[in-house]
């Protein structure tokens, strides 16, 4: 039983989601919503125009505020990207792409 639990946690966090990495220029998709999962401080330092900033720890509380259009996710790291996109897809949202933005890239 413990093996299954550990396997599930590893899968949720480290197995990549099947969503394409995209550049942040979304000129071909005017209907898209950009969801910024970085902390408020990181998003303020390096803002992205018209992005909806909901930090990763708050996504479960505030996902219902997102419109049901195409979503592009800006994540601070690979783990929060994987966990967040899996969660959003489970809730029926249409995630089309992602980008990783952190202090190390």
From TrEMBL:
Gene3D superfamilies from the UniProt entry: Rhodanese-like domain
Molecular function in Gene Ontology: transferase activity
Keywords: Transferase
Protein name per Swiss-Prot or TrEMBL: Rhodanese-related sulfurtransferase
Species whose genome carries this gene: Texcoconibacillus texcoconensis
Organism taxonomic ancestry: Bacteria, Bacillati, Bacillota, Bacilli, Bacillales
């Amino acid at each position: 039983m413990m093996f299954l639990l550990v396997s599930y946690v590893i899968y949720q966090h480290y197995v990549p989601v099947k969503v394409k990495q995209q550049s942040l220029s979304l000129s071909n998709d005017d209907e898209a919503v950009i969801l910024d999962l970085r902390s408020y401080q990181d998003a303020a330092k390096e803002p992205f125009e018209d992005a909806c900033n909901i930090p990763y720890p708050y996504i479960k509380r505030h996902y219902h505020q997102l419109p049901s259009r195409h979503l592009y996710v800006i994540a601070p790291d690979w783990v929060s990207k994987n966990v967040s996109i899996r969660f959003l897809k489970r809730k029926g949202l249409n995630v089309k792409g992602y980008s990783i933005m952190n202090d190390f890239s």
